[in-house]
Amino acid sequence: xxxxxxxxxxxxxxxxxxxxxxxxxxxxxxxxxxxxxxxxxxxxxxxxxxxxxxxxxxxxxxxxxxxxxxxxxxxxxxxxxxxxxxxxxxxxxxxxxxxxxxxxxxxxxxxxxxxxxxxxxxxxxxxxxxxxxxxxxxxxxxxxxxxxxxxxxxxxxxxxxxxxxxxxxxxxxxxxxxxxxxxxxxxxxxxxxxxxxxxxxxxxxxxxxxxxxxxxxxxxxxxxxxxxxxxxxxxxxxxxxxxxxxxxxxxxxxxxxxxxxxxxxxxxxxxxxxxxxxxxxxxxxxxxxxxxxxxxxxxxxxxxxxxxxxxxxxxxxxxxxxxxxxxxxxxxxxxxxxxxxxxxxxxxxxxxxxxxxxxxxxxxxxxxxxxxxxxxxxxxxxxxxxxxxxxxxxxxxxxxxxxxxxxxxxxxxxxxxxxxxxxxxxxxxxxxxxxxxxxxxxxxxxxxxxxxxxxxxxxxxxxxxxxxxxxxxxxxxxxxxxxxxxx
Length: 487
Description:
Layout: H1 2-8, H2 20-33, H3 46-53, H4 57-69, E1 73-76, E2 80-83, H5 92-98, H6 101-111, E3 118-120, H7 129-141, H8 144-148, H9 159-172, E4 181-184, H10 186-198, E5 204-209, H11 213-221, E6 225-230, H12 238-248, E7 252-255, H13 269-280, E8 285-289, E9 313-319, E10 331-334, H14 337-351, H15 356-366, H16 369-394, E11 408-412, H17 418-427, E12 430-434, E13 447-451, H18 456-474, H19 480-486
Parallel strand pairs: 3-12, 5-6, 5-7, 7-8, 8-9
Antiparallel strand pairs: 1-2, 4-10, 9-10, 11-13, 12-13
Helix pairs in contact: 2-4, 3-4, 7-15, 9-15, 10-11, 16-18, 17-18
C-alpha cells in the first residue's frame, strides 16, 4: 500500500508519545507538505489503514477529520478521503502515478537518504577507482570548445557515440548501424519513451514477475493492463509466456533476459531462439532490456533476443549506468530506423536531446571499456562474495540462488512479510525493498531485493543492521557467533 509505506518512516504505530490520532494526523500532514502525498491521492479506507498499523479505526477517522478541518483532505460519503492541499488542480491520475510504490521508494532513497541510514533500495554503485581515473582522463581529453561551435542539439544522440555503441553491438554478434540507435537519458527514459509510443490505454502488456520497478511504473503511466510471466531459475518461462500471449491478445512484452533484475538469472540461448521465432510468427513487439548485459560473473551471455528475430519487432535497451557510472545518465535504444526516427521525434518534445557533454565523455570511456568492465566485474564479484558470506553467518535461514550476473540478490525470507520487515529495519537504520515493489501484481512479499553494489563498508554494516532487524522482527535469539559478529 503506497500511502502506508510513505507513512511508515513518519508514524511508528501505537508506540510513541501523545494521542494516536494526533500523531497520525501529524505524520499525514508532513507527508502532504513534503509532496509525498500529492493532491488527488486517495487515502486508504479507515479500516485498511487501521489494520496496517494495528490501531483502532476510530483513530484513523479522527486523524482524517483533523486534516479535513485543516483543509488538507476532502472527505465525502461513498468517495473516501482525498488529499487536497494547495495544488488541487493536479489530476488524480497524476497523483496516483507520482505516488506509486515502485518509483516513490527509490526516488526518496536518492533524495532523502538520511545521514545515518544505510539504504539497500537503489541498486547503483559509486564509480570505482578505475572508472574515476577513466572519467578524469576522458574529461581532460574533451575539447568542449570544439563542441560549443555546434548548436549542441542532437535529438537522436551524438553521432560518434552512436557509432561507438553500434560497433560494440556488432562485435557482440548483433549487426547494428548508427541509424538503428538513439541515445537516451538513462534506461529509464528509454523504457518510458518506448512505452508511450507502443502502448495504448487498457492494452495488455506482459512483464516478468518480479521485474524492474521502473518498467512497471512506465507501463502503468500509459494505462497498460499488466499481465505477468513467472521468473524462477531463468527469466520468463517461455511456455508460460506463450500461454499468456495466446489468451490475452498481447501486443507488447517487456523482458530482462540477461542478468535479470532483480534475480540475476540468465535466459538460455534456446529460450532466446524460441522467443525470436515467436516474434517472427506474430505481431508481437518485445522490449528487451540489456542494461545489465556487461555484468556477468563467469560467462559471456548469449546473443540478445534481437539477433533471433529476422522480421519481427524487437526494441533493445541498454545503459552505461551500471557498467560505468549512473551520473552519466546515458542509455540507448536499438530498433529499426523508422522506429528510431519516431522515438526521436517524441524525445525531442521532452528534452530536444540528451546533453552532449556526457555523450562526448562516454565516447572516450568506450575506448577503454574492456578495462572498465573487467574492473567492475571484479568489484561486484568481491562484494557478492562478501554479502553471501555475511548472510550465511548472520541469517542462515534466508535463501537465495547465486546470480549469474547483475547487481542484486533475490532473497526469500523463511517466514513473515518483507513489507513488515522493512518497517522494522528502518528503525535499525537500514532501508530495503520489499519483494512486492518488484512485482506487477504486488505479490512476492516473502522476498526482498538486496543490492550488493554498495561500498564494502556499507555492505558490512548494512547486513549487520538487517540481521538485528530480523531478530527483532522474528523474535529469534541470535547465536553466540552471530552476536560476536553483530556487536
